[in-house]
Design goal:
The structure is a homotetramer. Chain A contains twelve helices and 14 strands. Chain A is of the alpha/beta class. The first copy, chain A, folds into two domains: 113 residues, 3-Layer(aba) Sandwich (Rossmann fold), CATH 3.40.50; 204 residues, Dihydrodipicolinate Reductase, domain 2, CATH 3.30.360. A seven-stranded mixed β-sheet of chain A has the order 12-11-7-10-9-8-14. In chain A, strands 3-2-1-4-5-6 form a six-stranded parallel β-sheet, sandwiched between helices. Chain A starts with a strand and ends with a strand. At the C-D interface, strand 13 of C face strand 13 of D. Chains A, B, C, D: One of its GO terms (cellular component) is cytoplasm.
């Protein structure tokens, strides 16, 4: 059993808290928040000792690993501290919103090498894994196209948008990481186009709430990403991989298993699962499995800091392409 | 071009009239009805000379074949007359509602052998043909189960029901013929159960508006037929064939080709095609093709009077089984 | 936490053992088998103290409840013993293969009233529950037809067949219970037809390996059950409920989430889950949930001994109907 | 009945020939080809008088309209001649491969105004029409995204590619016209990326055999086009329209109506229809319907020369964007 210190007590901490508590190989040892009340609430709910003392939390010998689920702009500080303390780190994505601070995260990990895993949870979703596995084992031959749909049920609050780094950095980055991971390569050129159709407040911030992106890979394969901040029928999450000998698709998830026929509609399902907490619940469990397994097996976790840097670089290039109307070429 | 005399000017005549007129190998020569006004209306719409004189109609040398689309209880008379006149006959199903009169139809055809085709149009539906073809060529190995769903949008008028011969003879007979044709054998034992759930007037006549039937074939294969006189989502017509190495299914037809997603339903289609005129429109064309081809090729049409007799025998056995609660054994 | 004694260490015990061990409200206290080696193996795997002493097992004050997962012909003995010992009982279905011994089970429970739950696990499958819930809340109006498909991947060993009570009692009984539970009523008349198409050894025993059944309910609704001991594409488990205002269907389960397109086939899935251990895994967990909840809430579990007796009575009537070719009428 | 002169006797002439012959309102009067042998072959097959004399063909008073199905680089010449002769023109798309010559087509039609229809047959496909109709009547609210997949079974001969004007002008132009027609607006900015993955000879010509395109519309809506010259499972043709209140999709077409289940695959269809002649057969009939109806009703056909110019302008912009890596802005 690995003792875990959970840093943070906001939304993502409430995603990880119960999953750490329920994990057979993890023990929620401490919950840290600079404001003790938040730490206490999370500890009451999921266990562990609440603390507002970072140094003591990281120094605790019962703490074998750290899960960082704090606001993005604090990740760098906590990564540096945990790395200095020699504790393996699971960090919610993204590491940071800027390349400069992201590089500092990687530098900290280079100075104090500890196992580090970035929470690209969609890689651990069983459907996405099955698609990647089938692509990588040659079920559809050499890859031609990848397509990813990520349409969210409703735009987030404008305060969230302001702090998000922009739509491509906040949302498209998930698809970017997922598609590069499936393709097994990084794009050499990207183009993106954004529009604001749902919430004028988002447009007023200079941001988009719907976007299309094209990634061009060195192999010649290409990817299309289809993002929307609004979706009437739930959380639309699909992948399509088109290769020389075939095509693979994943399906959307509904909570209701029934096919419904009536005088209005036939072969109908109910709306999709609401949002990522429902759709990707299992993926967070599996991501913690990977973190646990990597530590206990003494190997590096499969979603690395370098993966996070690479995805951010592409997301920032998309942002620039959407702004300038020019494809952005990426160097190795 | 074969000159055709269309007998009748009711509902089924209005199904066949335009299809004969449009058929590249058929020419609508005469429309007969003992009440001339009906014949005139049909002739106005589809062409041909109206007539209330059966003898003259059948004696006309321009008439190469006869399509009988009159009320069921007149089929025997017209089959006898057309056979005597030596004209090939296409007769809307059933030949008759009783075994005794059906045998007289066959006797007439034996005395005056002319090409005869019974209008089992569902055999000529492309989906049903494809399923039969796949079954017969071994796509699913030896047959275990056949299932047929026939659910109509709404109960017919009670006058129709009274003259129909009962639900099994009127409706189930379609499924019986289709399944026997697919299986390539006749059942040795049948059981059926009827219920009245939609229109109490049907129950008051001692008839059913929903029924389940089991056919047991000599090979050991079995069939289930699922009939309802009411169906909220349109005309439900499906087949399922289950064999040793696989299963085949046909799909329902909708006029609307779109898949619809909204805040109420996902992956939805619109309701199914309304009723048999829409769903089986093509099958009537293909049935006339077969009639035309058989005559011009000098061979017997593929849906015979004996097939009609066999189906009626099974339908009557279903009626008896539903009445007595005992399976009825059929002899060869 | 309820301490559980698991009786048995065969196949079903290995289904329940790990689920009891993992259940948050249950504790595997003892594993009983008259042959101690079996008990030891199960206890090694899942925990609890192995024992070959039934009296001591049932007398243990740490044992709050008993899960009977022994061969069917021993259920009566263990139900009687556990009831006398005052311990709540979860008994794998069926209670017994004969009405006479089933009545003795009920008599034992009447003499020594303890909470009793029969393991009709399919009632606890989320898909089946969703369909029942939708039917009961009126999503499709008054019920006309229920249909259940249960097709197993391959025939069981002939020794299993010999001891099974026959196909209807062994297999159809699942569908019978499920459909009666959904319909909310018991059939008043049943008909069934069996055939032997897959394993001649089964036919040599006078048993069937494929069967069709019709149940007629007092409300006028009817049900069709479609059973096969062999299925090329996996474990085919579907329900269809057809009512006055619509239809509901459940889908088969595949382990592979992908839709596959290639030069041979399009929109294809991989074969279905292999058999009931895979398809109904969740249902066993949920059944234990219900058992645990009923005991801790002091109420009767929802799948009762009377339900088991009713289903057996119908299954035996199916057996008789298949033998005699006559529908069997059931009295209240 | 309108008398039609069919110009050309190549592949597309063999598409139009039988459809003109079968059309109830059209009569194939003349077949023109500068090489008389080709005209004779087509006339033998479909009717009409063969001719290698353009002037005589156009001067024939029995010729009420002209269908141009000749190589693209001859369209201008025939449009000019037919317009001068005052004959209504149906011209296979594209009018020409260059903007300069396309403008000359429009100029000819301005000098000699005759009814002119460009053969954008996909607008007349029933599925595409249904999707547009649903979009335009507000079924999914304001449009956010349109997506079009056009994947062909196999790359064309390299000679075809050389004369095609490039992949965007040859193939993407179909999707461009279709999506603009559905959206009801022309894009203000386009980006495209091409790759060569299937046939190196195509790449050696500087052309692509797979491409992704983004169109940005003035309304803020965007479109993605997904083109491939190779597709293992047949001719993949899909549309997706995503709007504020819902989504609409069209399905691919298969010739085989069966759903197939076996030990390898479940819920599978056979491969898709082979190519556009199969998939869009009906659309050519409907396009001729529109041509016929427009002429007889004295109105302009719905797919205009200006539509063709607009689509070509966008396709050329895509070509430039793919070459330069910069989005191309289009002016009104």
């Amino acid at each position: 059993m690995l003792g875990v210190a959970l840093l943070g007590s906001g939304r993502m901490a409430h995603v990880y808290g119960p999953k750490i508590a329920a994990h057979p190989g993890l023990r929620l040892e401490r919950v840290f928040n600079p404001r003790i009340a938040g730490a206490e609430r999370a500890a009451d709910a999921y266990g562990g000792t609440p603390s507002d003392d970072l140094t003591a939390t990281l120094a605790d010998p019962a703490v074998d690993a750290v899960v960082i689920a704090t606001p993005t702009n604090t990740h760098l500080e906590y990564i540096e501290a945990a790395a200095r303390a020699g504790k393996p780190i699971y960090c919610e994505k993204p590491m940071d919103l800027t390349m400069e601070r992201t590089e500092r995260c990687l530098a900290a990990l280079e100075s104090h090498p500890v196992p580090f895993m970035l929470g690209f949870n969609r890689r651990f979703d069983p459907d996405n894994r099955a698609l990647r596995e089938a692509v990588r084992t040659g079920d559809i031959g050499a890859l031609t196209f990848l397509m990813s749909w990520s349409r969210e049920p409703a735009p987030p609050p404008i305060d969230y948008v302001r702090a998000s780094g922009g739509y491509f950095v906040d949302a498209t980055i998930h698809d970017i990481d997922l598609l590069c991971w499936i393709a097994g390569e990084r794009p050499r050129k990207v183009y993106a186009a954004g529009t604001c159709l749902f919430d004028p407040a988002i447009g007023a911030e200079g941001d988009s709430d719907a976007a299309m992106t094209i990634l061009e890979f060195p192999s010649g394969a290409m990817a299309h990403i289809n993002n929307s901040r609004q979706c009437a029928y739930g959380f639309d999450q699909r992948l399509e991989a088109f290769g020389r000998t075939g095509m693979l698709q994943t399906r959307n998830h509904r909570d209701d298993p029934l096919i419904r026929w009536d005088s209005e509609r036939t072969e109908a399902g109910m709306p999709l699962q609401h949002f990522f907490l429902e759709r990707y619940d299992a993926s967070f469990h599996h991501a913690l499995d990977e973190f646990h397994a990597a530590i206990t097996e003494g190997r590096a976790p499969s979603a690395t800091a370098a993966d996070g840097r690479a995805a951010l670089e592409v997301a920032l290039a998309c942002t620039e392409a959407a702004r300038t109307g020019r494809a952005v070429t990426l160097t190795d």
